[in-house]
Amino acid sequence: MSTPSARPDKHDHRTLGEQSWAVHGGNRPDHTTGAIRTPIVMANSYLLPDDPTSLDDADPDLLVYTRESGANQLGLQAKLAAMENGEAAAVFGTGMAALHAAFFTLIGPGDHAIVSNVVYGRSQGLFDTLLPAKMGVEVDFVDITDLAAVRAAVRPTTRLVHAETIANPDLRVPDIAALATIAHTAGARLTVDSTFTPPPLARPLSLGADLVIHSLTKYINGHGDAMGGAVIGSRELIDAVKTGALHHIGGAIAPFNAWLIMRGSVTLPLRLRQHCDNASAIAGFLHDDHRVAHVAYPGLPGDPQHARAAAQFSGGYGGVVSFALAGSHEDRVRFVNDLRLITSAVSLGHDETLIAYEQYTGVKAHAFAAPFREHGLIRLAVGLESADDLIADLDAALTATYGRPAATHS
Labelling 403: which of 22, 64, 264, 385 has CA 20 to 30 A away? Predict the structure, then answer.
């Protein structure tokens, strides 16, 4: 009896287009039943070989125990690695588990990290609280779009630079290739959270990043019904992520969630087009409406992030639009509550459009543009509905609070 192993994909992603690979990549037909889709393998353990001592414990993809590797995880990892032009991928139960695993692998006590001063809140929490307190990591938060500031923050102990392709939530866009040069010149690694720009929109590894991280919960799943995270990069680094953080700390993805995300990823290229087209139309509407104090969307030609976004992204500028409304806090709350099609909820990349209004204080608020500091920030995670319907919903809610538009911006 031999150890079960992952069957190679019959399709080579290098010979297939984006949509074909999205459909076929990572799928392993079941030879027991003849099912053409990989079934959900709800097993904790896998059959050992006749001689269990012959197992190669150094192989992180060995099918022995599902916390470390499972049939559904292997298929998802194969698809994600190919989609990002990486050698290998590791999947986790959440995006935060994936981020923690990447940082845990690359930095340790006494090391220094440079991190974007606008970054997902839970990522910021890792760097301003947990990693310094628990691991002795030193951190500088800088405007990641200011390359001079990034260079000035480099120390002899710098081992990590971390950015997001589109920063959550103010949508600034860093120069990934330039950050990679700065990091590598300093002997550091560059990690990039590309959740807002899954393939084919962006591929940070191709721009010099060492690891790219995704919250699979968002666009790659696309249906708002499963959580997951992924770290993608060279086989050497991913093996270190698996044999370290995954094996010894846990954070494994459940087989059912891996299966759901694999199912959702099939339509990713198609969905991204709709997300981006809708977001572009809505950003244009908001920009031209005098009732809106400020709009951030890298797809707008006049947006300060547009040039960098155009140079790095392919096929669109993402599905998130952030904006600010003047008036009182109560006005903004009323606006959100008057929406009928758009749902007030966190997350993004779902089939339905979600909106979240926040007021920021303290150090993070100072990093934002003045309108966001003054009026708070409304993040619109645009879904797959009709753009006309979404714009009508926004217009009706604006009218209920601010009245009919009297003019448009020039």
Answer: 385
Please tell me whether residues 188 and 337 are part of one structural domain.
no
* pLDDT cut 70: percent of the chain above it: 95
Q: Is residue 3 part of a domain?
A: no
Distance (Å, whole) CA 45 – CA 195: 31
244 and 281 belong to one structural domain: no
- Secondary structure in 3-state letters for 79-113: HHHHHCCCCEEEEECCHHHHHHHHHHHHCCCCCEE
Contact 161, 114 (CB under 8 A): yes
Same domain? For 257 and 286 the reply is: no
Identify the active-site residue in 218, 291, 308, 379: 218
Q: Rounded to an integer, what distance in angstroms lies between the CA atom of residue 13 and that of residue 20? A: 9
Instruction: Say yes or no: 145 and 291 in one domain.
Output: no
Structural domain containing residue 226:
13-265
Do 248 and 285 belong together in one domain?
no
Model confidence over 321-380: pLDDT tens digits? Answer: 999 999 999 999 999 999 999 999 999 999 999 999 999 876 677 899 999 999 999 999
Q: Is residue 128 part of a domain?
A: yes
Catalytic-labelled residue, pool 61, 111, 120, 308: 120
pLDDT tens digits, 28-75:
888 888 888 888 999 999 999 888 988 887 788 889 899 999 999 999
61, 170, 175, 193: the active-site residue: 193
Q: Is 46 a catalytic residue?
A: no
Rounded to whole angstroms, the maximal C-alpha distance in the chain is 79
**Catalytic-role residue among 7, 67, 155, 273:** 67
Domain boundary among the residues 265, 282, 314 is at: 265
**Known catalytic membership, residue 120:** yes
Tell me, yes or no, if 242 is annotated catalytic: no
Is residue 247 within 8 A of residue 68, CB to CB? The reply is: yes
